[in-house]
């Protein structure tokens, strides 16, 4: 269901538009009506509509400026301009701010519905890409393919960051929706996930990069629980391997060492590991090391060279290279970014505490 916000100061014009749009009541709903430009901007923030029908000559702030302000914040919303003025300069300005359609009054119901159909198809196309990527992610998780799941989650997030770069509110909503979806998948697979913790943390976090990290951590916890509790008849030998890795990954373990410990040939273990987890042994151990590295960078003051040695990387430069390949940032950049967000969060908390403790001074 697509939400439409009508911006029109003439009562009869608004009623006519509502009557025309009612023909598609199974697909669209009138979310709100604004009679001035300023109220249109306020309602946009409150309602988050998919489509705005804007008359150019509304009071306070004209329709073109309303469209321009909205477009600066939101690259996805469909904006349809309605005007009685066949002015080439206005048309040029409307095109420059990337409105989706430009309708001249008097407009027929067919013209208006043709315009609505055009923009809903564009919105639907974007939503179908999102749904397809989300479904692909769900399939990979249920097939227990960790590497594929991680790649698909990253691909989905990259797509959302791209299409929502001008609409942070929608981006945050989409990220929260993915979190709810992952929790639902975990529930279907009988995995023990702390739903309230993740959902609350993601909803309270304003930084999209940290939200992405939380989703990746949630995905990792799902797979960790999947293996730890031997769900879906996971091979007992692989469970033993993963337990051994968890205790010794920081010691520079090799495939041969683990194979000897379990009593299998390295070749057989390599094939079995890839079959069960969808990721090869070396990649899994490396990613586990990097996860620990991220934790040490965020929560300790340990020098990066010491962290590298702690995780059995012989050269700090090699640790930096591997870390950047997996995380997208160098260890120092990662530490700086996490610490910056932690400081911001702490400062906000202190400010809120101050305001609360001194609220008698605020009227």
From TrEMBL:
GO biological process annotation, one example: phosphorelay signal transduction system
InterPro entries on file:
CheY-like_superfamily, Homeodomain-like_sf, HTH_AraC, Sig_transdc_resp-reg_receiver, Tscrpt_reg_AraC-type_HTH
State the UniProt keywords alphabetically: DNA-binding, Phosphoprotein, Transcription, Transcription regulation
Q: Does the keyword DNA-binding apply?
A: yes
Recorded GO terms, molecular function? DNA-binding transcription factor activity; sequence-specific DNA binding
**Residue ranges of domain Response regulatory in the record:** 3-120
Return the Pfam families for the record.
HTH_18, Response_reg
Residue intervals of the HTH araC/xylS-type domain = 239-337
Q: Which residues carry this modification: 4-aspartylphosphate?
A: 55
| Entry-linked PROSITE patterns | HTH_ARAC_FAMILY_2, RESPONSE_REGULATORY
What name does the UniProt record give this protein?
Answer: Uncharacterized protein
**What taxonomic classification does the UniProt entry list for its organism?**
Bacteria, Bacillati, Bacillota, Tissierellia, Tissierellales
């Amino acid at each position: 269901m697509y939400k439409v916000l009508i911006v029109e100061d003439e009562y009869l014009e608004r009623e006519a538009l509502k009557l025309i749009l009612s023909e598609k009541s199974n697909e669209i709903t009138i979310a709100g009506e604004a009679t001035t430009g300023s109220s249109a901007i306020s309602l946009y923030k409150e309602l988050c509509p998919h489509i705005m029908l804007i008359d150019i000559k509304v009071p306070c702030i004209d329709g073109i400026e309303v469209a321009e302000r909205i477009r600066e914040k939101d690259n996805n919303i469909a904006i349809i301009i309605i005007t009685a003025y066949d002015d080439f300069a206005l048309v040029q300005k409307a095109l420059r701010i990337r409105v989706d359609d430009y309708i001249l009054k008097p407009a027929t119901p067919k013209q208006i519905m043709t315009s609505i159909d055009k923009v809903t198809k564009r919105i639907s196309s974007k939503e179908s890409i999102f749904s397809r990527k989300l479904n692909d992610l769900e399939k990979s998780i249920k097939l227990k393919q960790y590497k594929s799941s991680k790649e698909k989650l990253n691909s989905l997030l990259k797509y959302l960051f791209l299409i929502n770069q001008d609409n942070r509110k929608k981006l945050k909503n989409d990220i929260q929706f993915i979190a709810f979806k992952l929790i639902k998948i975990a529930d279907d697979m009988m995995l023990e996930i702390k739903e309230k913790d993740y959902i609350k943390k993601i909803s309270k976090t304003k930084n999209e990069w940290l939200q992405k990290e939380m989703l990746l951590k949630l995905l990792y916890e799902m797979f960790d629980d999947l293996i730890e509790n031997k769900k879906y008849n996971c091979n007992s030998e692989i469970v033993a391997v993963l337990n051994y890795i968890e205790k010794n990954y920081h010691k520079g373990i090799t495939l041969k060492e683990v194979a000897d410990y379990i009593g299998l040939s390295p070749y057989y273990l390599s094939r079995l590991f890839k079959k069960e987890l969808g990721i090869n042994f070396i990649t899994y151990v490396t990613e586990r090391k990097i996860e620990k590295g991220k934790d040490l960078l965020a929560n300790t003051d340990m020098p990066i060279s010491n962290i590298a040695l702690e995780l059995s990387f012989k050269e700090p430069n090699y640790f930096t290279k591997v870390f950047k390949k997996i995380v997208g940032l160098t260890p120092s950049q990662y530490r700086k970014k996490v610490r910056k967000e932690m400081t911001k969060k702490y400062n906000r908390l202190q400010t809120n505490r101050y305001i609360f403790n001194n609220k008698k001074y605020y009227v």
